[in-house]
Amino acid sequence: MAVEVVMPKLGMAMKEGIISSWNKRVGDKVTKGEPIASINSEKIEMAVEAPSDGVLLDIKVEEEEGVPPGTVICYIGEPNEQIVQKKEKETKRLSLSSSKEEVAATVAIEERPIKKNRLKISPVAKKIALASGLDIDTIQGSAPGGRITKADVEKELKKQGEKEDENREEARGEQTKIPLAGMRKVIAERMQSSLLNSAQLTITMKADVTNLVKLREEAKQSFEKRGEEKLSLNDFIVRATVLALGKHREMNSSYDEDGIIYHEGVHVGIAVAIKDGLLVPVVRNAEKLSLVETATTIRKLSSSVRRGEMDGIEMTGSTFTVTNLGTYGVEFFTPILNPPETGILGVGAIEQVPMYKGAELQKCSMLPLSLTFDHRVVDGAPAAEFLQTIRGYLEDPIAILL
Fold first, then answer.
1. Does any domain span residue 55?
2. Residue 105 has what pLDDT?
3. Using 50, 70 and 90 to split pLDDT, how confident is the model at 110?
4. What was the pLDDT predicted at 106?
5. Do both 158 and 55 map to the same domain?
6. pTM score of the predicted model
7. Are residues 78 and 52 in the same domain?
8. How far is CA 70 from CA 15, 67, 311, in A?
9. Confidence grade of residue 227 (pLDDT, cut at 50, 70, 90)
10. CATH number for the domain including 135?
């Protein structure tokens, strides 16, 4: 039959004992005389020992809970044994019969009482306080005798957190809050959705555009003689990207729940910064345009967007995006995908660096390229090959013109 373990009486004036901590859990084996729990009253702490061998069948009083002496705190018995509650009279009789042993234990314990200036804190509360860096000497205990409980520590942590928040607010001083609305709200929602709903990875590479810079200068002079607008470096980059997309169809695709959609036409989105945000007009069927036609289309779209003349401008349906931060002095960065596209190319600022070409040291123009792609659609190796193809066109610019 299961054995009842009761809260002992730690002194004649004791009205309540508190379970500081359980050393065993339900289902654990116990040995007679083994400490199974720690208890305390106002001035005394002691360990409760198992009265017999067996298994801890049930715990009736949880940690931090206080109960009167004689209250059953747990049961010990054989594995899977059913607990039979004793009748009230029998329980009282057993409590009285064991009172001599309890008193004897009390006398032995009271010979070594806790010093009055000793801080009383439950093991759980102490563990939390130490882990949080709290000074337990400053915590006011709410349990009998000023004992600090878990709830007291949590209350103090909350209080300190609120105080830190107040200090931060004071340090910030006066603030102005502008509601998130309009274009800024749309951009925020789309960018967050992009990161949450795709597996984005960014790889980087540098392209030696020394020959491209020279070619552009030569083309510039030719265009000026004919009275036409000059080609920008970005025009060449967009054209090189379009040609590379024609060779790597997996990059000109979109992720769908039912599969991957490969697009026949190359519709390039051109990120254009405006005063209140960012817009991405689309150059449709860019694979059918020449370098000059691509440049002319980009210039018209960008100018219209910046002037706010967006009627008839296509802002959706892009299959790949190019964003250029080179004019801001940025090198490598991590562009965020424009859903549902598979890739976006980030272009940085050209840097003049000395490089050996053969045995000769030359000044070269290096262009940083950052490719973000959706890893659900494309693996790292194919994405790197795509970026290599773009680099190949930029380093051999005559191929862009052919």
1. yes
2. 38
3. very low
4. 36
5. no
6. 0.59
7. yes
8. 10, 9, 85
9. low
10. 4.10.320.10
**Which of 22-31, 214-223, 387-396 is the least confident region?**
214-223
Same domain, 43 and 189: no
User: Do the beta carbons of residue 46 and residue 69 sit within 8 Å?
Assistant: no
Q: Which residues are catalytic?
A: 375, 379
105, 192: one domain: no
Give every strand in the sheet of 72-77, ordered side by side: 3-6, 72-77, 54-59, 29-30
CB atoms within 10 A of CB 45: 17
Q: What is the pLDDT of residues 115-141, one digit of tens each?
A: 445 567 877 788 788 878 888 888 888
Longest dimension (CA), the chain: 117
Average pLDDT over residues 85-106: 46
Question: Is the pLDDT score of 112 beyond 60?
Answer: no
Q: Which residue has the higher pLDDT, 331 or 82?
A: 331
Q: Are 361 and 216 members of one domain?
A: yes
- Tell the residue number behind the tokens 């976006």, with chain if given: 344
User: What is the three-state SS of 213-259?
Assistant: HHHHHHHHHHHHHCCCCCCCHHHHHHHHHHHHHHHCHHHCEEEECCE
Q: Which residues pair with 373 in a beta bridge?
A: 201, 343
Residue 129 main-chain phi, psi, to 5 deg: -65, -45
Distance between CA atoms of residues 136 and 133, nearest Å: 9
In the numeric block, which tokens belong to residue 158? 């909350």
Task: Answer whether residue 176 is part of any domain.
Answer: no
d(CA 314, CA 283): 8
Tokens 């409590």 sit at which residue? 95
Handedness of CA 184, 190, 192, 195 (dihedral sign): negative
Residue 347: inside a domain: yes
Q: Are residues 282 and 203 in the same domain?
A: yes
Give residue-wise pLDDT tens across range 327-373: 999 999 999 999 999 999 999 999 999 998 888 999 999 999 999 99
Phi, psi of 298, deg, nearest 5: -60, -45
Task: Output the CA torsion sign for 117, 23, 68, 107.
Answer: negative
> Structure tokens of 197?
């709903």
- Token readout for 375 is 């890893």
The Cα–Cα gap between 302 and 292 comes to 15
The distance of Cα 376 from the centroid of its chain, to the nearest Å, equals 20
Domain that holds residue 147: 123-170
pLDDT of residue 205: 97
